[in-house]
Amino acid sequence: KFADLFEKMVPMLVQQSLNIASSRKADVVNRLVGSLREATNLSALEDLSGDSVPQSILEKSHAVIQQGGLNSIEQLIKDLPELLQRNREILDESLKILNDEETTDNELRAKFNQRWNRTPSGDLYKPLRAEGGNFRNVLDKAVQADQVVKERFNTHCEMIALLCKPENELCSAIPSANPAKTLQGSEVVNVLKAQLVHLDEIKRDREVLEGEIKSVTFDMMSKFLTALAQDGAINEEALSTAELDTRYGTYTQRVQQNLRSQEEILAQVQTSHQEFAALKQSNNEANHRDDVLKKLASAHDSYIEISSNLKEGTKFYNDLTEILLKFQNKCSDIVFARKTEREELLKELQQS
Amino acid sequence: SLYPSLEDLKVDKVMR
User: Fold this and answer.
1) Statement: residue A286 has pLDDT above 70
2) What is the 3 state secondary structure string of A130-181?
3) Smaller CB count within 10 Å for chain B: N or C?
4) Chain A residues with CB-CB distance to B1 below 8 A
């Protein structure tokens, strides 16, 4: 197992030349590899995906869900007709008891003529009828308001329902604007895809190239030793550059070729990408996505509006009911008084 | 607001 300790010992000049040669080599390798890396960065295209839910829509969806979603306004809308009907019935009943009493009064006046000398019910009830008329107008207006709310709800209920879905369902329900997906099969996309595949190949070539460049090894020692023996001096630069040329010449050409073909492909990608972007603008799929997003946004706004309309409407009907109940009491009170008076008058007439 | 206001009803009654 003899190991010659002095095997690696060389003359100082040779050692210095070796050092310089290795730094030259490192320079060459770094330059080549650097340009390869740079080219790869250049070729990275932006991610073209376009199918996540925009943040603003997500916020609107949470807001709608927080306020009770579709169910809460659906229930209120269902209640409106009943509230309207209840108010109508109270008003109709009030006016009916006025009418009945007035009819009776008119009949008795017709029967007893001037002996039926009390104030006609018609005159007495005039202010009440006017008030009743006002109530009728107000109710008619409320019916129109109900209609508006209902229409507004019908227009947006589908989109509001969508807003109430969990995020993943919402995302899948929104048409994707992912160009690669939506423009599947279109000429431009195929060309673009082919170019990107080609670009990938060039990238892969570069990786292989880089590996090969790094793996090049050669030994200058023997050359330097022979030069030193023959001439007594070492022309390191000439020897190193000559050796580097022979070793890396082909690689340099291949790197140049790789960079050149990448430039060409990138230029092509640029143009087809512009075509693609223009196509995307005109593409109804993408527009369709915009449509849906716009509708979702306006559905949120209408939801807020419908909620406040319904709150207002419900309050209106409940307040009106209280007023109508008071009105009904007034009517029944006066009619009761009139009836009592009528009976007394009848009694007197009979006695006379 | 969408629904008629009940205030004018009350005012109307007070005036009468």
Assistant:
1) no
2) HHHHHHHHHHHHHHHHHHHHHHHHHHHHHHHHHHCCCHHHHHHHCCCCCHHH
3) C
4) 312
